[in-house]
Amino acid sequence: MSEQKPVRLPDAATIKAVLAGLDPVSADADLTPALSAAFPGFSFTTAPVDDFYWRSDRTVLSADGTRLGDHRAWVERELAELGGDLAAFWNRHRESNFRFAEWRGTAVFAFAPTGPGAADFVQISLGHEVEVLAGPVVDPDYRPYSADDLFDPSWVRREPDSGTQVLSGPVYRLRGRIGGGVVHMKSFLARRARVEREQREARRPELEDRVIHEVGPTGTRDIAFLDANPGWFDFVPRENRFFADWERSSAAADRIFAHWAFDIHDLEERGRREIGFISRPLTNPAERLLADDGVSVHRLMERIEAVDAEIGLPFAWFFLMTHGHWVDPDVGRAIAAGLRANRVRLPDRDAAVLLAWDDKPYLF
């Protein structure tokens, strides 16, 4: 955040207006300054994430390139004209050279700090998209079995670098799952903790009456659920732990959004509030770090140091481990065991974080 006091937090309507005003020719260069100008007091940075996608809204083009309108509506009209005969539709268009265009993109996140804390920032989830000439309106080799086969074309190649002809763009769109397009992270984490607490408290009467029947070598015994789970109402969500661990580790010297983005959701599903995020590393190591059989803890220490050096962040390996892909959780367990046996050492603050994780693991 710049020295100028922010007037208001970024809002979706203003962000959409900013994005709509970008010239495709210079959109990539203009995005960051345009966002900062629209929200005085905020200094934005942006970062791409390797998250290729395509949109379901498509346009049909005739053989000469004339746009014939929405793809689904066009298919419905053509089918109606043919009395719903899929074979006739296929025969008409398998050599008609009619094609469809669709928007394809990759994820981009914009960040702006709002204070010194790890969670003191705003995150905006964006899509960087181009419209491409995707392919023919029917699969030339296979007849459709249903109209759904035509509405959702699966016969075209969809890859980030497929060499497909670009028709328009790039443009930026506000995206993100429900509730995740524009987020003030500190407020989100407070909301996440509150929802978890309220949902657990709502179950208190049920859990106070619940009894677990344990069967052991000496017979059976009954134990109250809350006696068997004394920390049930003190549970801390993994999202909150991720940020708390960052703040008390060596990684805290860097802003968290310089290394991570967060795929956020906040929605109602089947009458239950679902809220959380999936952490997304902005830089990936070249290789996964696995806890191979027979590898000593000292060798693992060398490998995690190499990961930290590659990412350019102390204790980076730990947060990559919680992500659940790039560093095997067994690596963390092995190093925690080495710490407890005094075979290896970590900085005190990092050792405390790792040992707490080993006692109560969390993954995304």
Q: What's the story with the biggest beta sheet?
A: 6 strands, antiparallel
First-last Cα distance: 29 Å
**Number of extended strands:** 10
Overall spatial form: globular
Could you explain the architecture of this structure?
The chain has 364 residues and is α+β, with helices and mostly antiparallel strands. The chain folds into 2 domains: 12-175, no CATH class; 185-359, no CATH class. It has helices at 12-20, 27-38, 71-81, 86-93, 147-151, 185-202, 204-209, 225-228, 238-247, 297-311, 316-323, 329-340, 348-359, and strands spanning 45-61, 67-70, 99-113, 121-136, 166-174, 182-184, 211-216, 219-224, 260-269, 272-281. The strands form 3 sheets. Strands 1, 2, 3, 4, 5 and 6 form a 6-stranded antiparallel beta sheet that branches. Strands 7-8 form a two-stranded antiparallel sheet. The two termini are 29 Å apart.
TL;DR of this structure?
It is built from 13 helices and ten strands. It is α+β, with helices and mostly antiparallel strands. Strands 1, 2, 3, 4, 5 and 6 form a six-stranded antiparallel β-sheet that branches.
Give the helix/strand layout:
Layout: H1 12-20, H2 27-38, E1 45-61, E2 67-70, H3 71-81, H4 86-93, E3 99-113, E4 121-136, H5 147-151, E5 166-174, E6 182-184, H6 185-202, H7 204-209, E7 211-216, E8 219-224, H8 225-228, H9 238-247, E9 260-269, E10 272-281, H10 297-311, H11 316-323, H12 329-340, H13 348-359
Helix pairs in contact: 1-2, 12-13
Summarize this structure as a short list of keywords or feature phrases:
alpha+beta, 10 strands, about 375 residues, about 25% strand, globular, two-stranded antiparallel sheet, 6-stranded antiparallel beta sheet, 2 domains
